[in-house]
TrEMBL record:
Keywords: Hydrolase, Metal-binding
Binding of a divalent metal cation 1, residues: 32, 34, 118, 230
MF annotations from Gene Ontology: DNA nuclease activity; hydrolase activity, acting on ester bonds; metal ion binding
Lineage: Bacteria, Pseudomonadati, Deferribacterota, Deferribacteres, Deferribacterales
Binding site for a divalent metal cation 2: 154, 180
Name of the protein: Hydrolase, TatD family
Record PANTHER family: D-AMINOACYL-TRNA DEACYLASE (PTHR46124)
Similarity-based family: Belongs to the metallo-dependent hydrolases superfamily. TatD-type hydrolase family.
Gene3D superfamilies per record: Metal-dependent hydrolases (3.20.20.140)
């Protein structure tokens, strides 16, 4: 279900398949990375080349607050194959000011900005008070409707409130959305699928103890699926514990192939189709 060793026959035979797809021009997108974070931005050319070598050729770099979203957009403007999202992460919700709305509306109109996010609720860390998190989340969901952009949702231990806030907005005409870094929550999965949202899997899908998450993946139709790294966080196996990089999205895709019993090439074609339904890139 996942590659255990950083060398050996399982890894090398997978890398052969990866290489063959890359040569045929069948490629993968890392739909959720933080490439503009200092951990990655300082050596960005290296990370992009390394990703390209394993057929990971398109990236969405995700903003988490006002200042950070500007950095995301700047990086996207520099590279043809990098796109950006802008938003306020629940951790940063208390920093948000209503006077920032104009800044975000302007940002959403930039050519390389393709999504609103990441936004959502995080009751695990609670860096911002719950009421403020909910207010800011609702504001950005509204903006995703008015600016005609898909949204990217972060949820941690807040499923009930998240659905309460998002459901009325998602029930209106929305422009699609993603539940990012899905953690296996069944209520969230059911709601997201009913609302026609996409569910995105990150490196935690590959963890030894993630049987429940892999079980949940069996119930998600292929045409609702995306993969991401969330780098610099959450390295998949066999690189768990090291800083994550965009090239590693191939290992999450590997586990998706095993769970869904689909070959790598077909998975990549399916994911590309999904991305095109959601984004204009
Ligand atoms: Zn993220």
């Amino acid at each position: 279900m996942f590659i255990k060793k950083r060398s050996g026959s399982e890894l090398s035979s997978f890398l052969n398949i990866v290489k063959k797809c890359a040569e045929e021009g069948v490629f993968l997108t890392d739909t959720h990375a933080h490439l503009h974070f200092p951990e990655l931005a300082t050596d960005i050319e290296h990370h992009l080349t390394e990703a390209e070598n394993v057929g990971v050729k398109r990236f969405i770099t995700i903003g988490i607050n006002k200042k950070d979203s500007s950095k995301a957009v700047k990086l996207a403007e520099k590279y043809e194959n990098i796109f950006a999202s802008a938003g306020v992460h629940p951790h940063d919700a208390s920093e948000f000011n209503h006077s920032d709305i104009d800044f975000f509306i302007n940002t959403f109109k930039q050519e390389k900005v393709v999504a609103v996010g990441e936004i959502g609720l995080d009751y695990f860390r609670n860096h911002s008070p719950k009421d403020i998190q909910k207010d800011v989340f609702a504001i950005f969901l509204d903006l995703s409707v008015s600016e005609k952009l898909p949204f990217i949702i972060h949820n941690r231990e807040a499923t009930k409130d998240l659905i309460d806030v998002a459901d009325p907005i998602v029930g209106r005409k929305n422009h699609g959305g993603i539940v990012h870094c899905f953690n296996g929550d069944k209520d969230l999965m059911k709601w997201a699928l009913d609302a026609d949202l996409f569910i995105s899997f990150a490196g935690n899908l590959t963890y030894k103890k993630a049987d429940e998450l892999r079980e949940a993946l069996k119930y998600i139709p292929l045409d609702r699926l995306l993969v991401e790294t969330d780098c610099p966080y959450l390295s998949p196996m066999p690189f768990r514990g090291k800083q994550n990089v965009p090239a590693n999205v191939i290992f999450t895709a590997y586990t998706v192939c095993k769970v869904k019993d689909i070959d790598y090439r077909n998975l990549l074609l399916t994911l590309e189709n999904n991305i095109k339904k959601l984004y204009t890139l």
